[in-house]
Amino acid sequence: MSMNFPSRLSWENFHRVIVEGLKVYAFYLAVLSLFRLFFILWLHDYWGPNTGNDDILLALWRGSRLSMQTAGALTLISFVPAFAAHYLWPKVEKYLWLGINGLLLGALSVLYMASFPYYRIYRMNFNQMIFTGMNEDWTALFWTMVDQYGLLPRFAGAVVLALVLWQFLRRLLAWEVPLLPIRHWPLWQKLAVRATFLYGVYIAVLLGIFGGSLGWQTAVDWENAGVTKDEFLNEAILDNPQAIYRAYSLNSRMLACNGLDFTMEDIRQLAANLSGKPADTDNLDVYLQKSVVQGTDNPPRHVFVILSESLANWPLLDKYKDIPIAEDLRALVAEQDTDYCPTFLPNGASTVSAVTGVVTGWADANLYLTTMPESFAAPYSTASAPQMAKLGYDTNFFYAGPATWERIGAFTQAQGFAHFYSRGDFGDVPGSVWGCEDECLYANVLERLTDAPSFNVILNASNHSPYDVDVEAKGYDKEKVRAALPAEHQQDEELLRELGHYWYAQRELAKFVREVKEKYPDSLVLIVGDHGDRYNIEKQPDMYARYGIPFILTGQNVHKGTLLADSAGSQIDIFPTLMELVAPKGTNYMALGQSLTTTSNKGVNYGFWITRKAIGKADTTPLVPEAVAGSENPAVDDQVMQDYINAIRAISWWRPKYGPILDQKILDEKGR
């Protein structure tokens, strides 16, 4: 080790290498931001007809915040070895900065030049197709790129671009940043300046980690970045590395869709038992055919399915009636044109499972439907929107958040929804990183209603972490709620904030229902939570209080007793229930679930089952029932419930992934 090594540990030496890292960080951020600006301007033909300057500025701002994360990651690749060399092998430090970043700039330039034809082909920034392309004939792919997409001149352009950028970076690294003459300052002043510098570095690190934010609550990432009303701008917000990361994430989710352990014979027999038909065909769609049993000759004009974020059922239970967070929802349940099932399960543990359950009719069976190519090829036979459209309803999906989250915009439209609306369509509205405030979402839904019949799925987002709606300003009486809580929870400010968001969500939901009924009294509204299991009063709630969500029907053709007295179900049972209330008797339709008005007295999801009197885990043998609130002597017919669980899972695994025909050859070719 050199005798000069101790001097390398000086503040000045440390400051010098940190400044070099900050230069590289700022350089990458500038490059990615300029790339985005030029991309937007060059491809202006892809702007939407109503895209304005405000939308472009929003995309540039949002994209720059996201690129802070990319710039941080790129900087780290060269900073770590350069930092080590700065202290151990100073002579090679310069070459590491220039060499590593030269390679990175070359890769960035190639990606950038490729992104223009890529967008023209796929109308997206880099997506899962880059992984699909790895399975193509590479020779044919190469010549296609040469002949049709100008591979050679584009590659030459990328080389020139990389050299130009590298020269700029080289000059930036050679530039000496002017420093304050603090050598002869008093010690406290030196320490103050150095502390300020370190704090600035700390802020830069946070911005790089959290995508232009100082914490995860407001972080920008590829899933929540697309907030404009223009699909092109939403794609342009993602820089090329972020787009590739999106493609990698979605592809990984799809590859994680492992198969379930069912044979062809198992699935055929389970499907036959579920449908009550003989097991004499390998076409699963035969077993999924249903007919409306009761029906109506007076269909509602507008039909709404409201998937309310984290709308758990426990606040509606008698045990919690004195805690004033669900008064509006309780009043709605008490109305004569409303019926309520308290024993209902979500499709899965997350919002995306609720969306896939309502949109496709499939249960959560270890498939990530929003990433699977099969989901985008055509609507599934059980998809709700196309079947509602056959009844004369215009189909709309409203989401409070960005269209890019879980590819929800593309997914819902691929599954038959004629229209999709998200936060970017609602203008400058208040909200969090997950979506606009519920009242803004409902206002936009009401604005778009006409006299024409419509089927509307609404997914809100306010009752979601980071729980930053100013609910007290909106009327939440926190002190009244505090006083109603058990003494041991009265000082739990986080819980009070969460309960305030439940209060706000249910108030706005009930208000929306009242406004719909006033304007269109011939409407039908179905309300469920997307999932439970986010917060409870107790730290260890029972299974029912933790996972249950409410199922509320209100409006035309609904009265007390519309639902079976022993009704229970899950989100795959929503569409069959609707069909009994909107379609004439005898109407044929396709569904996996059952109607809560006729036959559904049990529900199952990814991990649990439920009846009117009991709930339990779905993967225990034998099943172990736990009492639902107020019930006594819980029991379950183990074989009947096991068969139902297996049937729902088997069909929800095979049919979306492999198609309607049970054939071992298909499984052998595609694999599990």
From TrEMBL:
It comes from Selenomonas ruminantium subsp. lactilytica (strain NBRC 103574 / TAM6421). Pathway: Cell wall biogenesis; lipoteichoic acid biosynthesis. One of its GO terms (cellular component) is plasma membrane. It holds the Pfam family Sulfatase. It is a multi-pass membrane protein. Keywords: Cell membrane, Membrane, Transmembrane, Transmembrane helix. Residues 346-581 form the Sulfatase N-terminal domain. The chain crosses the membrane at residues 21-43, 70-89, 96-119, 151-170, 191-216. It comes from the Bacteria. This is Sulfatase N-terminal domain-containing protein. The keyword Cell cycle does not apply. It is found in: Cell membrane.
